Amino acid sequence: MKLLLLFSLVALAQCLVHRIPLRKGKSLRQSLQERGLLERYLKKHPYDPAAKYFSTGVSSEPMQNYMDNSYYGTISIGTPPQDFTVIFDTGSSNLWVPSVYCTSLSCSNHNRFNPAKSSTFISTNESVYIAYGTGSLSGVLGYDTVNVADIEVYNQIFGLSETEPGDFFYYSPFDGILGLAFPSLASSGATPVFDNMMNEGLVARDLFSVYLSKNEESGSFVLFGAIDPYYVTNGISWIPLSAETYWQITMDRVSIMGRAELCQDSCQAIVDTGTSLLAMPNEYLTVVLRALGATSNGEVRIDCEYRNSLPDIVFYINGMEFPLTPSAYVTESNGVCSLGFQGMNVPTESGEMWILGDVFIREYYVIFSRAKNMVGLSRLS
């Protein structure tokens, strides 16, 4: 009886924090934000999506929003644990971090894993090479205990970088990358972290969900094993995957309302938390710039005076509409307005790929379901 009462009181408290509006229809969050107190409140009372669940197999990893360009959280590897900041990347499948073997400049200002300091590390003779759109790395593979959002994954295979050419990773605020795509995409046949979570029964449901904050605000997270009901009040639109490599889907078409129609015969897209912008084939970027009256000189820009008159860009997917408003795809810095688009030709068997990166994901709570092999989108209000 006492346990039931405690559960009811906790549930009621959560409703008061997350659900019940204040007078005049304002939520607690809105009221705090209007008074300039939201950031201070969140620091003292960080929102933990997993806290509302009273079962094992559900855990939340908070992510730092770095200038709306990247989102990263902290994991640990080894015994005793060595901490690393990583991008939780749905566009790749490998886990890797810099190692003490790395001689590249990019490793010099990041945390580096030292196998000699971990009693649970198991070395291999296998090498790994991973190439991204912005950088690459090579190194060796090893096994060790990995802790992600307080979920301990034993004997997890991961990459220890030895070379990281170029300067992209040098200027990155994170140490490494934790891939959340499918095993078929993994370099050297390494089993992804989330696959081991599922195989070992460490998550309540074979899915994870992601919320990305806007305007450098706190609150971003990846939730393993559950869907947070607080973020799906607008319902969930489920989209079947068209391939089990990336989180790849088929788009029916893309419309710049009243100005242009793109990929009218359908095209492929991936939902990618590891890409900052919304990437599209170069031929389509040209059409988009022309339709919006924008220019491109390394960075896609538009006259700030016209930003409020720009149209929505609507993605038609699985018979449903997913709009992207100007406030989502236009950013202003020091009086200069930029569009969150980039041209990138990513060839696939079914044509050039679109990448629905953070510019798109910030507008939707995204559920990545391995149980259904679907992506779920819920529009954020």
Describe the structure in brief:
This protein has 381 residues and is mainly β. Helices cover 15% and strands 40% of the residues.
Per DSSP, the total helix count is 7
Q: Per DSSP, what share of the residues sits in E-state strands of 2 or more residues?
A: 35-45%
Task: Supply the CATH architecture of the largest domain.
Answer: Beta Barrel
Tell how many strands the DSSP assignment holds.
27
**C-alpha Rg (nearest Å):** 21 Å
- Tell me the CATH superfamily of the largest domain: Acid Proteases
- Tell me the structural class: mainly beta
Give the termini distance in whole angstroms.
38 Å
CATH fold type of the largest domain: Cathepsin D, subunit A, domain 1
Count of discrete domains: 2
The amount of helix comes to: 10-25%
CATH class of the largest domain: Mainly Beta
Low-confidence stretches are: 1-31
Shape: globular
Mean pLDDT: 87
Give an account of the 3D structure.
Mean pLDDT is 87; it is low at 1-31. With 381 residues, this protein is mainly beta. It has helices spanning 2-18, 28-34, 38-44, 193-199, 282-292, 326-329, 358-361, and strands spanning 59-66, 70-77, 82-89, 95-98, 122-131, 136-148, 151-163, 176-179, 207-211, 220-224, 237-240, 243-244, 247-256, 260-262, 267-271, 278-280, 295-296, 300-302, 313-317, 320-324, 330-333, 336-339, 341-343, 347-348, 351-356, 364-369, 374-379. The protein folds into two domains: 59-224, Cathepsin D, subunit A, domain 1, CATH 2.40.70.10; 230-379, Acid Proteases (Cathepsin D, subunit A, domain 1, Beta Barrel). Strands 12, 13, 14, 15, 16, 19, 20, 23, 24 and 25 form a ten-stranded mixed sheet that branches.
